[in-house]
Amino acid sequence: MRTIRNFVGGKFVELDHGRRFDNVDPATGVTFAEVEEADEATVDQAVTAAWEAAGPWARTPVRERAELLRRVADRIEARFEEFVAAEVADTGKPVALARELDVSRAVANVRAFADVGSTAGQESFLTELPGGRRALNYAVRKPLGVVAVIVPWNLPLLLLTWKVAAALVCGNAVVVKPSELTPSTAALFAEALAEAGLPAGVCNVVHGGGVTGELLTGHPGIDGVTFTGSTATGARVMRAVAPRVRPVSFELGGKNAAIVFDDVDLDEAVTGLSRAVFTNTGQVCLCTERVYVHRRIFDDVAAGLADRARELRLGDPSDEATTTGPLISQLHRQKVLGYFALAEHEGAKVITGGGVPDMGSDLEDGSWIEPTLWTGLTNEDRVVREEVFGPVAALIPFDDENEAIALANDTDYGLAASVWTNDLRRGHRVAQAMNVGMSWVNTWFLRDLRSPFGGMGLSGIGREGGASSLHFYTEPTNVCVQL
Ligand SMILES: NC(=O)C1=CN([C@@H]2O[C@H](COP(=O)(O)OP(=O)(O)OC[C@H]3O[C@@H](n4cnc5c(N)ncnc54)[C@H](O)[C@@H]3O)[C@@H](O)[C@H]2O)C=CC1
Ligand SMILES: O=C(O)/C=C/C=C(\O)C(=O)O
């Protein structure tokens, strides 16, 4: 069986402590690789390698750093299908989705940050003082140093490249910890870095779960942490870095709302909502789990969305026609099934799904789940308040715009929202009234990588993307020169 190793100081290292964990295909339940777990010494070596590489890398001209990143993007593109296969094996997601979303976005992320980083300007102000004196203020941005990058299992390569490319173009060195459930594309990415000629130690990859994560975030050599994952783990990371007061960037969970007004083109809205609820088996932080629908079209939207759910093709992820894979693990399925039971206990009417599908003998040990829609719930119910992170949504009627806004904003999260209407003014007005980091009108998950991305409330701290990433991954020193 293949062994996935840690990448430290530009090399894959073999550990002799014997601690390994299984890499399981969630579509079949079959273990197909094993992974060496990074212990304290390995994490320390990775941080030390990063620390030693950080100075020379920061002094490398930004256009050279950007050029190197473009070579990394070329290497991912050259090995595109290998990356796709690795992502499919780790996550069980359909091959078409891995191509269209995960690996394409990885290439785009790396190129986007090469561009953003190498074309960024700096702030400057001409300061005019009483008596005609003048001064020039300008800010020089410096990398943080060594950044810990901790990413989850739902979009493993997309999220890894989103953070690593931005950190590197800014002149930081990084230590990345992918999820223990999805280590494969991080290992391939390390190979792509070496092929592109990234100096040893600038990017290191350590494997493991929460224990390895804590060794990394608690390491005194870490100068900043960027994390995507659950709110509970985000809080633990914050506690780990608090004694050394290091900057954090957190993109956490969501309980995202869609608002559907009665002037929509029904077919178009239902198609968009179906993407928003079911993409990646509902395992995207941006996925919609609350759909507020104008009462006049409530039954039509519910019926239309239920039809779309039934049309999804669950099956072998390597089949080009498959639209929907399993959940990431049996453990996660137990959590989602717990919410199915809770929804029924809270009085939900299940309009489609609600259980475990019969997938036939080859896939029966996978963590499959039925796309599920509920009506009959209110904002008081726990399933309407807590993140499920599965292919589920509650549909709730409203009577007017103000009520819809109040219902959508009635949450402790604040990541994303979508508004569906053909009234231009209402679209802008309601999108702006959402207490979220990202608000879409008549679409969902349409991304411009230069835009700020992140959430408020329990959904996170800070923004990444475009200039927001450059701000997080650097510290400005303001210089004031009297003229
Ligand atoms: N993007 C998102 O919004 C995501 C949300 N989730 C939510 O979180 C729930 C739990 O999923 P998990 O895999 O347990 O997410 P998690 O937040 O615990 O895991 C994310 C990453 O953090 C690492 N990690 C875990 N404990 C850590 C610690 N103490 N210090 C540093 N790193 C640590 C994990 O190994 C993984 O790499 C899901 O059911 C879902 O609701 C999960 C993944 C992504
Ligand atoms: O488009 C992006 O940059 C990110 C999308 C999704 C997540 O961050 C997530 O699911 O965690």
Automatic annotation (TrEMBL):
GO terms for molecular function: oxidoreductase activity, acting on the aldehyde or oxo group of donors, NAD or NADP as acceptor. PROSITE patterns: ALDEHYDE_DEHYDR_CYS (PS00070), ALDEHYDE_DEHYDR_GLU (PS00687). Its EC number is 1.2.1.85. The active site is at 251. Residues 16-478 form the Aldehyde dehydrogenase domain. Keywords: NAD, Oxidoreductase. It is an enzyme of class 1 (oxidoreductase). Pfam families: Aldedh (PF00171). NCBIfam families: OH_muco_semi_DH. Belongs to the aldehyde dehydrogenase family. This is 2-hydroxymuconic semialdehyde dehydrogenase. It comes from Lentzea tibetensis.
